Amino acid sequence: MPLILETKSLCKSFDGVIAADNINVAIEQSELIGVIGANGAGKTTFVNMITGYLKPSNGKIIYNGEDITGFPPRVITRKGISRSFQIPQLFEELTVLDNMIVAQTIKNKIFVDPLLPFKNMRKVEIAKDVLKKFNLLRYLDEIVTKLPQGIKKLLDIAMAVVGEPKLLLLDEPTSGVAIEEKFELMDIVMSGIKDTGAAILFIEHDMDIIEKYSEKVLAFYDGRIIAQGYTSDVLNNEQVKKFVIGFEIGKEEIN
Amino acid sequence: MDKKTHMILLCCLLLILIGNFIFPKWLTFLFNISLAKAFIVLGLVILMRVGLVSFGQGLYYCIGGYVAGICQKFFGINDFFMILLIGIFISLIVSFLLGLLLCNYRDIFFAMFTLAFSMILYGIIVKTETLGSTDGFNVKLPTYFTISSSFATGKFLILLITILIAYFVIIYIRKFFNSELGYISLSTKENEIRVEYLGISPKIVIFINYSLAAILATVGGALTAFVSGHVDPDMAYWTTSGEFVFVALLGGTMHVIAPFIASILFEFIHMYAYDISPNTWQIILGSILLLIIIFLPRGLWSIGEIFRKKEVKDASNS
Predict the structure, then answer these.
(1) How many domains, in total, are found in chain A?
(2) Distance CA A226, CA A220 (A)
């Protein structure tokens, strides 16, 4: 499979504090990669650098053979990298349908029309198709602010999918969702995005979910990648067991 | 805009126009000045929909007024449309330059920056004797494609022109509110991060809205100058801008017609408050603003919304 994204010696420091150090990753087309690591390990910093929210202190990000280091998020989105957020970033006072149509409207447009009607039959049908894939059709006319967290998470991902990305980054898609609902939510997410053909990179703390859904894993610890490769290999890695899985189990036990 | 609203709008505007021949002169003047000032308020509403409040729309209001006066006084240009085009052109240049800076700021910083720029213009005009300093100067009624008119006909024509512009502005801005850009503007108010991550710059969205608001304020300023026959630096003073914010809050941001209704109502409140209590009329205005904020935080237009919701509730109960 050809490479879609490559990072070379990616570093990020904040006033001397190193958040990401020498990150070298290669992602192939249509891969499904889980990202694990304790809080503060550098996972979200890594995603934020790829999507342009943070400018790397050092290193390069190569997407489809093009150096996109330091590009702003909107440019990176237009190139085909979309993301969802740990805390869903939605238009809370608009309806679910309007949220989807906003995403559709912006897609493929640098300048949005000041006179062209926001809604039309075609846009509504496309939005409904995507919402159906994510089991959100029944919430079509609901105001987003009234929706439960799990539904907001799904909508957040559905909006990211609208742009037909080639690489989709999901930041903790199951966080804030009850344990018994996590697998159901992930099943919906995976069925919703499987047709896109996009490479998917998702941050997750639940090892059962990582085991079930990811083909490969990147394990972060203290701003570095301590292991990467096939899921079973990474999860059986001694360092990962000691610094990541042990920590996660410990955290779950405390909780 | 649905047909019913369209018909009501047309009837109201026609009533004001016909009223010119029935109503006393002061009432026609009041309607005309209210409609002219409503353009500035509508510009504010556009900015509010993108999440910003400007305390400096007086800047463009003043530009509109003074361009009209300067064109007549110094360049002998008296054609209404030419003056309006020059005013819009100048305000576009100013809004382009200021917009580049202002689109980087939000909340109180945006409000204070806009206020600062309007006060700079105020200071410049006050110190410019050729522009009449604090007294300002008089502005004549314009001609229309070289057609001049008597004073009475001129007053009627400026009312007619104001109504026509109001009609087309309402139709266009209504379309704008329901357009792609209109909804992206609302979305920018809700969540700039998401707008950026969907692939468009929130700064550009704000910039366009700011320029549109500037054009409307300039049109309002020019119309006010012709209707009142006078311009002075107070047009750029911060209390004038504050007055427009008051009217915007009074009407709310829910409908494009709300600023026009609020503007007319404000002029009446202002007039009667001044009549009742010439030295302390601000107390009456302040009290009304307080009541609006407490009981109708989304403005007068939300009264209709409350009744509609009540009707739906009653219907579902029965």
Answers:
(1) 1
(2) 6
Most B CBs within 10 A among A83, A85, A105, hence the mutation to make, goes to: A105
For residue B118, is it within any domain? yes
Nearest-by-CA chain B residue for A105: B180
A121 belongs to a structural domain? no
Q: What CATH number does the domain containing A178 carry?
A: 3.40.50.300
For residue A241, being part of any structural domain is answered with: yes
pTM of the model: 0.88
Mention every residue, 6+ apart, whose C-beta is less than 8 A from residue A48: A54
Burial of B252 (0-12, 13-18, 19+ CB in 10 A): buried
The encoded tokens of residue B272 equal 């009667």
CB contact under 8 A, A117 and B186: no
> What's the structural domain count of chain B?
1
CA-CA distance, B99 to A212, in Å (whole number)? Answer: 51
Residue A155 lies in a domain: no
Question: Within a domain: residue B154?
Answer: yes
Its domain, for residue B167, covers 32-317
Contact B179 A74 (CB under 8 A): no
Query: pLDDT tens, B72-106?
Result: 999 989 899 999 999 999 999 999 999 999 999 99
Site from B200, B204, B211, B215 to mutate, A interface, most A CB atoms within 10 angstroms:
B200
The ipTM estimated for the assembled molecules is: 0.88
Helix (H, G, I), strand (E, B) or coil at A237: coil
Taken in order A52, A56, A62, A67, the sign of the CA dihedral is: positive
